[in-house]
Input
Amino acid sequence: MASPVITLTTDFGVGSPYVAVMKGVILSLSPSATLVDLTHQVPPQDIRYAAMVLADATRWFPPATVHVAVVDPDVGTERSIIVARIGPQTYVAPDNGLLSRLTRAAPASLIVELTDPAYWRPHLSSTFHGRDIMAPVAARLADGIDPLLLGPRRDNLMQLDWPEPIVSQGAITGTVLTIDSFGNLITNIPAELLVPFARGSVVTCGGRDVRGIARTYADRTMGQITALVGSNGMLEIAVVNGSARQTLNVAAGAEVQVRAVGET
Amino acid sequence: MASPVITLTTDFGVGSPYVAVMKGVILSLSPSATLVDLTHQVPPQDIRYAAMVLADATRWFPPATVHVAVVDPDVGTERSIIVARIGPQTYVAPDNGLLSRLTRAAPASLIVELTDPAYWRPHLSSTFHGRDIMAPVAARLADGIDPLLLGPRRDNLMQLDWPEPIVSQGAITGTVLTIDSFGNLITNIPAELLVPFARGSVVTCGGRDVRGIARTYADRTMGQITALVGSNGMLEIAVVNGSARQTLNVAAGAEVQVRAVGET
Amino acid sequence: MASPVITLTTDFGVGSPYVAVMKGVILSLSPSATLVDLTHQVPPQDIRYAAMVLADATRWFPPATVHVAVVDPDVGTERSIIVARIGPQTYVAPDNGLLSRLTRAAPASLIVELTDPAYWRPHLSSTFHGRDIMAPVAARLADGIDPLLLGPRRDNLMQLDWPEPIVSQGAITGTVLTIDSFGNLITNIPAELLVPFARGSVVTCGGRDVRGIARTYADRTMGQITALVGSNGMLEIAVVNGSARQTLNVAAGAEVQVRAVGET
Output
């Protein structure tokens, strides 16, 4: 039988030995687990960024993969830690909005609050529940434990507000939701909304106009600002061989407009 | 049977293909090994930093894990490379103090100096013993070779000085031993020494006073200097959402004082 | 049977979730694959740098390892993606010169152009062929598919120019081919050309002279510019505990001269 897959998403930073500690705890309980780093470069305590990464990346994993997300600014307070089944995947995370981008596409079919310390490490620290609670629970889930043993069912997950694009006659007004490691601006405007603009459009962000929506990076020349549909199916603004974040001087939350223009 | 686990700790830097080369050599000899990166972000040639990481992180791994540490400023000189059994774990490292923090807690039960080239790669470079000696030996240890085949027994490992906290009437004087990737200052003062200070204390470092020892990061507000017990059980000084290293302008070796004060 | 090994080399940057997405796609098709990151720190779109890394690092892996390289500035254009057998290893990459350093040592014994979408992901994006074509093909190759099912044979791979060192009476004129993550300058001068210079030599680069070729880093003192034979068997210029790139202010392509001098 194939090894269970467990992914890890944290804001510990690359090279943090705390990531390795979580892996050691997992392998101590589930020696045949296949461990994959989703990313440890979540900006510190940026729940919204991590929620985007989880929504975009985890669906590419095999069914029954266990995804552990430790972006946990409230560790040590009364926030709860939950296990959630969303589609064919299982998630272990603090209930602070980390799964709120995922549940827009498909609601959780099961939510359990982790309350039974029998499945945790024996001695609980107040600062590292990733190691003491989430890692051991992920190992047991990968090995097939019934989540209902871990604690009581819950009805809801904490939600964050995810702005939706506004479509009007001849224009879409959207938002930069997150910025990837290349400095590309990832918006909340999905490709299907762009179909009516195929004959000609201008994309505006940070006070700069970009004419047309390119099919690929190779359609543009170095240093040019480009609008294109990224690999997650959303409109992106990129600078070929550069950083759109720097060139346009914008942050997550910035407004993005798409307007139809006649072909000239 | 579960795959043997091998961890790697180096100062090669993240993204170094030399790390991958060591993994290729290991997998060529031990194809079922599970490889885990402990960290490759050890500051270049910082043996003391790596020794702290090894002491804190390796004990979370399954028994019989093989931990390879390549922080080796003296590669190509007459320094020896050793295999050591410390507790239930096995280590492969140059004998330059890398294991000296580990052996404070438990002495090595077996030390072998690697001298038999039959277990190394056939052609030895003068600059990369991680690849040519340590990786192949780690693979064979993971596969269960008797360490005594690898060379002669040794009685001692090289030791480094690890300053101990000094406890006097109403005060502890300790030292910043290392600084983590968040800029948190990790001291040599264990939590158990802090019990008598529970009623009220001031922690002083870098000329700044911090009142009280917080239970978690969430007890303090953004940007505030905080003293707390970290996940390794030692007193840490942190800046919430910031870097204590920068805010206090101190380096490893700085003095830390804890004084009792009356509750007011 | 041992798991097939698949390595990944990209310019996505460390912490990119796109790397994890490729791993998810691979593990969905080949659940027992062992995944190894070669490096994701290739400078953006630097095909030559990646070609050097592939030539140096992939030969250390077990026979039949599948190496996937996604440095793909022309994604979405008509460039082809190929599978190549070179020595005992298998490569999946865009045909843009990524394998041209490897094929100098040994020509490809088989080249297949990927044209049959039956072996790709069902929906093809225009920006991420690493996920949609290369990852699924790598998974199938690791599981033993006959490469000839994937598309038609090709005779040639795209070649890049790799300058050769020029040897004259008493001197070698070479080139800095690439620069590693330590800032060490890696040249195209192999160790065997240096044998006649053993009695005394001066290495010149960036207007600076370095006397002698050191056996190891430990032969020199901190901050000193050093010429030595690196672990890949090529002459390197390094600054002990520093960056030769910064100290000498040179880039890839810079000239390097070795001249014989009498011992004095």
About this structure: The mean pLDDT of chain A is 90. Chain A has five helices and 14 strands. The interface with chain B takes residues 12-18, 20-21, 23-25, 27-28, 31-32, 35, 44-45, 73-77, 125-128, 131 of chain A (CB under 8 Å). The CA atoms of residues 134 and 212 of chain A lie 46 Å apart.
